[in-house]
Write a structure and sequence with these properties.
Length: about 160
């Protein structure tokens, strides 16, 4: 008899390579950047001093890379329009937790007042005892830019009873 994790795995293992959709645009404001700087105690001028940053390498303030990374939770929640797939069987699911990242690359700075959004593709699904690790590659696009802000392979662990 299959466990709940095995049943769930069988219902989603074919999702590898499928597009999970594109999210809504989100504006990164100076207020958000300043609040993140306060929480992380990272007040480098390129983030919080518009006058000094204007003379710097980016011509304006930029979001912290870790701010953009932390917004993945919000950006992923707005994904819609992905590839068709059968409904998963998650009977016995107890919890879904952030397991970590395999790879993160900060490619292009997010300038203040830019709009960003995420796209996601399922990269891997692994059965691990009573759990499933699902890795999604998330790309954070910057409106009007050719290169994305970041690309990250994010692992979520689903634990089953």
């Amino acid at each position: 008899m299959a466990t709940n994790a095995e049943t769930a795995y069988e219902s989603i293992k074919g999702n590898v390579g499928l597009n999970n959709g594109t999210g809504d645009w989100f504006e990164v404001t100076q207020d958000l950047i300043n609040k993140f700087a306060d929480v992380t105690l990272d007040h480098q001028f390129i983030h919080v001093d518009p006058e000094k940053a204007a003379a710097g390498p980016f011509g304006t303030t930029i979001a912290h890379g870790f701010l953009t990374l932390s917004l993945l939770v919000h950006l992923q929640a707005s994904l819609k329009g992905g590839d068709e797939r059968p409904a998963p069987n998650f009977s016995g699911l107890v919890a879904g937790v952030n397991y970590g990242f395999d790879k993160i690359r900060f490619i292009n700075p997010v300038k203040v007042n830019s709009r960003i959004r995420a796209t996601s593709v399922t990269k891997d699904i692994d059965l691990k005892g009573n759990a499933i690790n699902m890795t999604n590659t998330l790309t954070v696009e910057i409106e009007g830019e050719d290169k994305p802000a970041l690309v990250a392979d994010w692992i979520t662990r689903m634990v089953f009873a």
